[in-house]
Predict the 3D structure of the following.
Amino acid sequence: MASRLKPSAESFTAVVESSDENTCLISQVLHKTGERSALLNFLVMENSSDINDVLELWDYLNGKAGEMGALNVLAEVPESSPVFESLRKAGFTPYGWEAAWKLPKKVSVSSDSEHEWSIALPTDDPQLRSLYQSLVPPIVQAAEAYANGGTRRLVYRENDEIVAFVESSTGPNGLYLRPLIHPAVLDISTLLNALISQFIDIGQPVYLQVRSYQAWLLNTLEMIGGESSNHFTLLVKHLAILQRNGVIITNGKLVNNRQAEPTAPMVSHLSVDDPPSPH
């Protein structure tokens, strides 16, 4: 929690207190320079359940995201989270779901030269973009357009054509893999085992993201010994105006970039904490 509140040019933390200082809301928006999307990172509610306070907080952070250069704001919430309804009322719309599967530490088959993953080359980018635009639904692409910002990628080829790639990121809870696999791949079990073999004995758990449009992977993940987590709903709010000024939270006082106490209770995570989030 404390590390998340560290001041940064790529984050903005808002704290809303009531006039009697007995209730408090804390949330944060993240935006990397040059990227089109910002991310709502977390929400802390201390002795507060007023939906209007939360809506004003979302409105303020959406405005800050626009000032930071974002074209939209993304959020990830557990399907049963009460935060979901507040985001819907604030203009966020669902565009899919995702789950993180913890991969087994051992693979059940030996290496197969026909199912080898290789490091992506700069010249692979046109094929990667084409695969993304072919497989990812338009509603998802409107929220998360294809981007190549130096992300680490592995690719899998069949007949010299890229039919799958995976992006990776690391965090305090492990390694997180984000795959995109063409459904025409025949032996998906062998392919996933070959992927797992790339990360054996790295000393931390490995998770695989499964999005709603790749749900056909779920049976295979269960067969190879993966462990599923809860589903998370993906939401987006498209910002009509990039720059917003003078947004005021009327019910309380706002303290910009204030350091909050790390012992404040976290009642709703907007992004995956355990297993690790890609963000």
Remarks:
- The chain has two domains: 3-97+233-256, 104-225.
- The CA atoms of residues 87 and 214 lie 25 Å apart.
- The first strand starts at residue 11 and ends at 17.
- Confidence is low (pLDDT under 50) at residues 241-269, 271-278.
